[in-house]
Amino acid sequence: MEARQDIVLGLALAGLGLAAAWMARGYAGASGIYPMVLGLILTLLGGTVAVRAARSGSRGARALVEAPGKLLVAVGIATLYVAAVVPLGFYTASFLLMLAMPFGLGLRRPVQAGVVAVIFMASVYLVFTVLLEKPLPREAILSILGSSG
Amino acid sequence: MEFYTNALAQVLTVGPLVAMIGATLLGVFIGALPGLNPVMAIALLLPLTYSMDPLVALGMVAGIYNGSMYGGAIPAILLRIPGTPASIATTFDGFPMADRGEASKALKIACWSSAVGGIASAIALMTVGPLLARVTLHFGPAEYFWIAIFGMASVGVMVGSDPVKGIMAAVLGLLIGTMGIDTLSGQARFTFEQTWLLGGLDLIVVLVGLYALPPVLQLAEKCDLKGLSAAQLKLTNMPFTRAELRSFLPTWLRSSGIGIAVGILPGAGGNIAAFLSYNAAKNASDDPESFGKGNPQGVAAAECGNNADNAASMIPALSLGIPGNVVAALVLSALTIHGLQPGPQLFHQNPVLVGGFMMEMLLTSVLIFALGGTLATRVFAQFQRLPGVLLVPSILILMCVGVYVINGRPVDLWVMLGAGLIGYLFEKVNVPLAPIILGMILGPMAEQSVRRALLISRGDATELFTRPISAVLIVMTLLVIVWPVVKALRRRRLRAR
Amino acid sequence: MTFKAACIGLTAAAALAAPVLAEYPERTIEMTIPAGAGGGTDTSARKLAILLEEKLGTSIAILNVGGGGGSVGASQFMQAKPDGYALFATWNSPLTTVPQVQNVAYSLDSFTPIASTSETAYTLCVKADFPATTGEEFLAELAANPGKYTYGNDGIGGTMQLAAERIFQTRQIEAVAIPFGGAGETLQNFLGGHVDIYGGSISTVLPYVESGEAKCPLVTSAADVPALPGASGLEALGMADKETLLWRAILGPKGLDPQIVSLLADTIEEAVNDPGYVEFLKTKGEVPNVVKGEALGARLQAEFDALAAVSKALGL
């Protein structure tokens, strides 16, 4: 058993449950009882997981991440992308993601990545903007071009 | 009988036929993209149809609805990303099958099972539906509470190897389900003064994050720069042997029955039908241990169950004027716009239209055999020929666009990202994800029903147990919990001999 | 340049300069509906949007933001840019009722009223064997049996509940409110006998009144409703001032250009009075009702104040 991970997991959820129960204490009437009970049960279960892990005491750590470098790159770029979608506009940010993510993960074939990016973005545009008419975050680049022109 | 032949004649004209074929394909596509769901597509398309022949409009609804319920299985099998909440149960066995090189077989099973479920459901809609609809009225808040509890009992099959962690995940889901304004008291719960949280966390947003991000991150970790070759895809078209078909028959029958029953009850949805069907198939199996490890019966049960819910969910809408889910509500609003009054007189008022729509639900299910099996599946499988590192950003973009268009608010993207990272860590430490979603779906139903029931009984809790339908549901719940234990004990005794 | 670009980019629905009326509208208008797809407000707004698209010569994209009885959509819309490309199609409850029971971030001042579109009354109905048929008998029966009867409504502190409680308070009636998720769910529980009284929109229950299974003694409008000949309006019961209606309107964000407001209001008026739309409203038991601009603001304020008094008395 991977004791340390389970202790952290158990304690984290127990803490979450306790916090929820504490917050629910102020809720009016019947609307507070249910989440409070749920919070307490979560605390109990989290505690069980932690205690069980501490007792078993095995120390053979299980790898949480197979390739930490790649994962970090992927999560980092994904986070940047989500942060950039609104300020840059959906299509600009997505196109950059299509180029940056494969590069970050080690693909060194810019032509292939570029072609796939163009085809893919074109189909997304067709489906969401032309067919479904869904409003997506507006492109900052259009505003710049528009205001100077 | 004349009712249906007349309707059939109306449906088999160019307009409705083209609408059904196009919409079924579109539906498969919509279901296959995580975040996009049939509700959104139908809501978008219906206004365009206000000026059309109503049978064309309804044909599109039928196609999208049936197609998307199957479409959800495609990414569930190929990538372990459920396209809709109803296809979570499909990932349990579908992905392990794909993992050992049987993707094409799993997809074919999903396709056939979806079609069978849809057909069974449409037949129920056309025959016994209107009679059964009256029966569902006897289900009051107390009965709905027990249905939710019955659904939760099926959590047993998905807790995995560590029951404590499985139940912990379910409780976490129930807790997430309490977020937002409580409809019975107006109390805001766990909203942290954030107005966007007043409606709670959106199920689809959490689902997309929790289920789609971990596989994407794992794909990034694997860092595949080449992609599969055509040969590796193994998209050979293997016909089912007669023995295989026979082995699916009991599963299909059982799942269709469950799907139809869940569908008729207003408020219970295809996701619950899929979980219950999967659970029933596992309980009925001689070898329950093989479920979750790529048992074809698991795929068949889940996919048949979620499609069998579809046409049946139209039963209360068409016969009573009570929409059981959002798609049914959209169909009713379309009928209203075409000048029809939903309610018990609908059948007499416009038999051709009602019968035609039922026919369309049937025909679009049949279409899944043709359209789902070869065309759509092949197109989507090509995705896997791309190098994994190119798939990573593509799926990420689809996730973001799907999540963003639900409510049009950027903060949902962060919720998705957060849920995804938690999902990634949970999987690594053996906490199953399905109970979280199940908790989010059933929690609000259970809580609201029981509180409504207590309001009606003026606080008398015995009312929850004494009503006849409640009693039946309680017994069924106990059976679901006890049955696997009994079976396991018996097996152990046999082995001991 | 870059600073400007960043500023523009940071707002979700960015526009370039102050809108010039001559050019308005030149791109897609986004219409937020604070309810899920398929409901009454959604259907009405989508149908109206099609007519508006024709008249304005631009496309309208619909965004459903449900949750919190409409408060989630309203709060989200409040932050939209007042450039005429963001509209809010709502019913009255999120603006006048929900703030009475929830702690919301918006007030009536957060919006620019453009025009109301249609209205209808709520109704209270009972099964055919209920020991009262007229409005007066119905209220007498409820008053004589305090706490005996349950009535289904659209949610705690919803407009339907307040509409009923306004009447009940006047006659010192005590009935048990059972909140449901919507009129469809209320109807289901009413037909199944789980609640005694149906409270909700007229169109939902109408087929059962026509079939004789239900009878409706009361509507919440002052006048009688032609679709329900057996129901008393509040005027007939001497409570005309307790009228509460369900009505729909289109609003803009705070600070919308008055020229755009009047252009939109006139276009909406035209669209609402389109024969096709009037016919559509009729099937839903609604009638066109256009109140424009500041008059609409005054109507919202008056309703807000009246409902504030009711909810205070209810202790919500």
Shape-level CATH architecture of the largest domain in chain C: 3-Layer(aba) Sandwich
The unreliable regions of chain A are none
Radius of gyration of chain A in whole Å, from Cα?
24 Å
Class of the largest domain in chain C in CATH? Alpha Beta
**Largest sheet of chain A, described in full?**
none
State the helicity of chain C in percent bands.
Answer: 40-55%
Number of domains of chain C: 2
What would you give as the CATH superfamily of the largest domain in chain C?
Answer: Bordetella uptake gene, domain 1
Helix/strand-derived category of chain C reads: alpha/beta
Structural class by helix and strand composition of chain A? mainly alpha
Explain what the structure shows:
The complex is a heterotrimer of chains A (149), B (497) and C (316). With 149 residues, chain A is mainly α. Chain A has helices at residues 3-24, 30-56, 68-88, 90-104, 110-131, 140-148. Chain A has two domains: 3-56; 68-148, no CATH class. Chain A contains six helices and no strands. The radius of gyration of chain A is 24 Å and the shape is flat. A two-stranded antiparallel ribbon of chain B has the order 1-2. Chain B has 497 residues and is an all-alpha fold. In chain C, 41% of the residues lie in helices and 20% in strands. Chain C starts with a helix and ends with a helix. Mean pLDDT of chain C is 86; it is low at 1-19. The interface between B and C is large, with 58 and 61 residues. Chain C: This is Tripartite-type tricarboxylate transporter, receptor component TctC. Chain C: Residues 1-22 form the signal peptide. Chain C: InterPro entries: BUG, Bug_dom1.
Task: Give the structure's gist in a few sentences.
The complex is a heterotrimer of chains A (149), B (497) and C (316). Chain A is built from six helices and no strands.
Key traits:
heterotrimer, A: 149 residues, mainly alpha, 2 domains, 6 helices, 0% strand, flat, C: 316 residues, alpha/beta, D-Maltodextrin-Binding Protein, domain 2, 12 helices, 41% helix, disordered N terminus, membrane (chain B), transmembrane helix (chain B), DUF112_TM (chain B)
Secondary structure blueprint with pairings:
The complex is a heterotrimer of chains A (149), B (497) and C (316).
Chain A: H1 3-24, H2 30-56, H3 68-88, H4 90-104, H5 110-131, H6 140-148
Helix pairs in contact in A: 1-2, 3-4, 4-5
Chain B: H1 2-11, H2 14-32, H3 38-45, H4 54-71, H5 73-78, H6 88-99, H7 103-126, H8 129-136, H9 141-153, H10 163-177, E1 180-181, E2 188-189, H11 203-222, H12 230-233, H13 242-264, H14 270-284, H15 296-312, H16 314-320, H17 326-337, H18 346-349, H19 351-382, H20 388-407, H21 411-428, H22 434-456, H23 463-466, H24 468-496
Antiparallel strand pairs in B: 1-2
Helix pairs in contact in B: 1-19, 2-4, 2-19, 3-4, 4-15, 4-17, 4-19, 6-7, 6-15, 7-13, 7-15, 7-19, 8-16, 9-22, 9-24, 10-22, 11-20, 11-21, 13-14, 13-15, 14-15
Chain C: H1 2-10, E1 29-33, H2 40-56, E2 60-64, H3 71-78, E3 86-91, H4 93-96, H5 98-101, E4 111-127, H6 135-144, E5 150-153, H7 159-170, E6 176-179, H8 183-191, E7 197-201, H9 202-210, E8 214-219, E9 245-253, H10 258-272, H11 275-283, E10 287-288, H12 293-314
Parallel strand pairs in C: 1-2, 1-3, 5-6, 5-7
Antiparallel strand pairs in C: 3-9, 4-7, 4-8, 4-9, 4-10
Helix pairs in contact in C: 2-10, 7-12
Organism (chain B): Roseovarius litoreus
Protein name (chain B): Putative tricarboxylic transport membrane protein
Keywords (chain B): Membrane, Transmembrane, Transmembrane helix
